[in-house]
Amino acid sequence: MSDSTASSFVVVANRLPVDRITTPGSDGDTWRRSPGGLVTALHPVLQAEAGTWIGWAGGEGPAPSPFTLDGMRLSPVPLDADELRNYYEGFSNATLWPLYHDAVEQPAFHRHWWKSYEQVNARFAERAAAEAAPNALVWVQDYQLQLVPAMLRRLRPDLRIGFFLHIPFPPTELFMQLPRRLDILRGLLGADVVGFQSPGAAQNFLRLTRQLLGLKPRAHIVEAEDGRPVRAESYPISIDTASVEQIAASDVVANRAKELRAELGDPKTIILGVDRLDYTKGIEQRLKAFRELLSNGELSVPDTVMVQVATPSRERIEHYRALRRTVEREVGRINGDFGRVGIPAVHYLHQSYSREELAALYLIADVMTVTPLRDGMNLVAKEYVASRLNNDGALVLSEFAGAAADLKQAFQVNPHDLDALKSVLVAAVRSPLDEQRRRMRAMRRYLRGHDVKHWARGFLTALGAPETATAYDSDNIRETST
Ligand code: ADP
Ligand code: G6P
C-alpha cells in the first residue's frame, strides 16, 4: 500500500456497503447496496470520515481493485468458493449466528469451518495492516471477524483498534459450547475497545474473560493477558435520523405512498413487516398471530391487510431454505383461507428495495410489526419511527430486540407468547390517535438525540481516549441474556 492511499480511519467489515452484481454476457460490474443493518449504520459514518472500508464484495473468486464511492475508498477482499461455504455460510452463519441469537436454531460445529474462519480473518487483518496509516484508527465490525483485532495488533502494534459486535453476545452457558471459545475471546481482546449493543452483552463478555482466562475485569475495563487495558461497554447503534426523515418528507415518497395505499385497495389498516428472511426475526410467529386473529374475527379482510417484506438472505443455508418454505406455506394458507379475488390478506414480497420504496411502505403502515425472537438492535423499528412525520402509527416491538431499550413507548411484546402477540397486535390496531401520537412523539424525540452519529462519536471517543480501570467489585457482573 503506498502512503498516498493509506488511511487514518479504516473500517473492516465482512461486507462492503455495495455488492457486485455480475450479469452473464454483459461487460463491467454493477453495484447494489448490501443488505443488513451494519451497512445502513456505517455508511453515513464512513462517508463523513472519508475513510477506507475493507470488505467482501459478494460472490466468489478474485476481488475487484480498490475504488472510490461516495467519498469512501472501498478495498474489496476476495473469498473463494470453499471460503464462502466454510467461513461465511459455515462458521459465521451456521455456528456463530444461531449460537449468539440464543440458539433459536441449533448451531452446527465443524472443524474445517474453523480453519477457514481463521484463514479469512487473517486475510482481513493483513489487508487492514496494509491500508492503515501509522497510528490510524481501525474499527473492526461484527461476528464474522472476531479474530481480526488480535491478528491486526500483532501485525501493527501502532494502531488503535476498535471492535463492535452488531448482534447479541450470548450468556456464558451458550458461549461455553463454542469449541474455539478461547481463541474468540483472545481475538476480541486484541482491541482497545470492544463495543456491544447492550450493557448485558458487555457484562457477559467481561464475565467470560474472568471465567475462561482468569482475568480481573473492573468496571468496564479488563487488563488483557499482555497487560493492555481493554474497554468493554455498550454503545447501542442507531440510524441516520435526519436522512430518514428527509427521505420520508420528499414528494416522491409521499406520492408513492398514496399509490401503494390505493394499490392495496385503500384498507382501513395496513400492518407491515420488513425483515431479512431470517429465523431470528419471528416472521412465522407474526403470521400465525395474524391468521388466528382473522380466524376468530378480531381482524378481517379487506379492512385489514398485511404486507410482509422478506428480504432474500443467506439463501444456500439449510435453516434459511427451511424458513422460506415455512413462511411461504403459511402465507399461502392465510391467503387461501381469508383472501378474496384481487385482495390477498398477506402481500408477501421477497425482494430488495430502494430506501425510497421502503420509506413509502413505512408511511402507509398503520401498524409496524418488529417481532424478533432475538435481535442485536433492529434498525427497521427505528426507521419506521423516524419516518412517521405526523407522529401517528403504532410500533409493535419485541422485548428481545435491542431497540426495545431505546423505543420504550412502543407496544412491547414477548413474541414467544402467541396470545400476548395477538392481543398487542389488536391493541395497536385499535389504539386511539392521541395515544399513538404520545408514544410516537417521545420515540422520535429520542431518535433525534440518539442517531448513528451519536453512536459513532461515543465509540470513537472511547477509542481515542481510553480511560484507566476504576475501582470495581467483580462479583457485580451480572450475567444477562442479551
Ligand atoms: P439486520 O441487520 O438483521 O438485517 P436491521 O433491522 O437492523 O436488521 O437492518 C436491516 C436494514 O436493511 C434496514 O436498514 C432496512 O431498511 C434494510 N432493509 C430491510 N429489508 C430491505 C429490503 N427488502 N430492501 C432494501 N433494504 C432493506
Ligand atoms: C446483520 C449482521 C451483518 C450482516 C447483515 C446481512 O446485520 O449483523 O454483519 O452483514 O446481517 O447479512 P449478510 O450475511 O448478507 O451479510
UniProtKB/TrEMBL annotation:
One record GO biological process: trehalose biosynthetic process
Protein origin, superkingdom: Bacteria
Species in which this protein is naturally found: Stackebrandtia endophytica
UniProt protein name: Trehalose 6-phosphate synthase
GO molecular function: alpha,alpha-trehalose-phosphate synthase (UDP-forming) activity
Family stated for the protein in its record: Belongs to the glycosyltransferase 20 family.
